[in-house]
D19L3 mannosyltransferase (Dromaius novaehollandiae), 720 residues
Amino acid sequence: MTTLRQRRGGRPAEAAEEQPSEEKNVKPDGKIQSDHAGGKLWNILSLTVGGIVAVCLGLLTSVYVATLHENDLWFSNIKEVEREISFRTECGLYYSYYKQMVQAASIQQGLHGLVYDNKTESVRTINILERMNVYQEVFLSILYRILPIQQYLEPVYFYIYTLFGLQAVYVIALYVTSWLLSGTWLSGLLAAFWYITNRIDTTRVEFTIPLRENWALPFFAVQIAAITYLLRTHLQPAHERLTLLAVFIATLLFSLTWQFNQFMMLIQALVLFILDCFDMLPTAKVTRLYIIQVSGLLLVCVLQFFNSMILGSLLISFNASVLIARTIQKNLKKGGLLNRLGKLFLHVLFVSCLTLLVNKLIKKILNLESDEHIFKFLKAKFGFGATRDFDANLYLCEEAFGLLPLNTFSRLSDTLLFYVYIFVLFPMTVAAAIVAFRNLRYSIGSTKVGKFVEKMEDWTIALKPGAAYNLIHTVLFGCLALSTMRMKYLWTSHMCVFASFGLCSTEVWGLILKCVRLYTSQRTCVIRYSLPIITLLYISYKFWPGIMDELSELREFYDPDTVELMNWIKSNTPNTAVFAGSMQLLAGVKLCTGRILTNHPHYEDKNLRERTKQIYQIYAKRSPEDVYKILRSFGTDYVILEDSICYERRHSRGCRLRDLLDIANGHIMDGLGENEPDLKPSLYPRFCEEIKKNLPSYTVHFTRVFQNKTFHVYKLAKHK
């Protein structure tokens, strides 16, 4: 077990254009005294100062998380094997490919080793570039090899500093999005402050550095900023084309760096679909965004050697269905309220059915089953029947895939973020509902614009296209975060943007003040600047001492048992040895020793999931002969047993790994408690416990060759 111990020894400039213009001084003869030069100078000054603040905050965030990482592990002082062990589970697997590329004799040989890999899964040759999202490791390794920095910077530091540098991009993108929405860079400053002070809930980059989301989320934030700018009205054609290019590049990089990209962009496509149905976004821009999503994903599919999971994604099926439905149902946005509601219902039904049909057809043609475990998990999670499926239960029992804990909201409330977020969300949602109703009642081009429309004009100010997009975006990703804790980082970072925008927005405050009949432009201006400044002062006063204490706390990486295991493997086993064990540990074995694995944590492949379930029989109630045959079928030479799994106490009964295996095998679980009626006692004791007794039925197949407080390594006999 690893422990930590105390150490020994878009363009913001144009946002001003959307603010209420100030009155011009008029001469008696009717000529306007021009203050154009002064206004332009002020805009340039504001843009310059705001830009400098954004870059400084981004860099400070990078330094902050890098310092926390160093202070937590004493990374600069620990041995290379300890540094590598600190990259836990799938993080270690991804980093191993960067290490492999850096250490290859040439770039060509390194790429060949990835395309024809026979070390990640024993007795199989797989294409790593097709199976996993590791192009970032490939690019970074090539960059490290060609830059003249090898003498000054170790490969591991080049890698982690790049990830910490991406945090600067992330914070700047959040800052710019908030600035674009509110029209003042003070909003961006507040968003960045909230992101930093809520670090526990907005990022985990300092302790899961190579995780795919840490690569992808900065590009996702850039894409949202670009979309927010794209949705501004009266955008010049040249600016629109450049913004579309920025959206495409950000979408491509986001899709290329994270295997769950298709699910995140599906939610984004649903945001666009909802807003388009209610006429809250320009249809032409929505269509371009649909096309950008599909083209970006298809380009990633090509780069990943036509990965079938991408082709069978719901996103491609959904976007294609929406475009087809639009072609068939041409008069969706004409008619009265009831007529529009009927057409809208049929449109949603048609798109849904067509999406499922197209997706099923694609999967049938491609014989695609790579993502079936996700849908089994979702079906069981939302109560559509219990399951004994091992893979689905493996996800259901992990805390990261459970509901968002309530203590998350108390932490977010400490910084006032959650309170402000709810305060902004309510009037924005009300305004959105009213605008949607008005748009349905009065179709495009209608001449019926009476008193109702005139009254609604005041409400539409608070819901420009960019604000409408970010509103539905935060609502849908909020629902995702509430249902699945691991996805909270997509929501909480955007929560910082949305809350800071609302607190600094003339539209939001104008709407609220008009409702209570207290609106004046001067009062709105005072509130939108004074409240953010007060909030910033409060956050600084309350959290600055804690941040300083956090930066001064020094710890040290300490995991002697795993270090001993890795050193033993490197010293006492051949380079071609095949190891079986838990997928989390084996990722570290590959990174630290380069030995061949039977299974690993990248779970998006049906054959690998079946293989992992078979390997995990070492923790089930199976006979030594059965376990031996299973392990030898995958070419296993050594098997590593972990006491932390065999005698697991972290999960409750029914969610321990041994319980999941017992249920899948039809066996009664250990310990006191209920069992399903059709489960039966096993004929054999639990393998991982019984093998330690050195009984003849076990020693004929397995010989213990290494042991410490945590791990037991057994060598398999090679019977003829």
Summary: The CA atoms of residues 642 and 711 lie 5 Å apart.
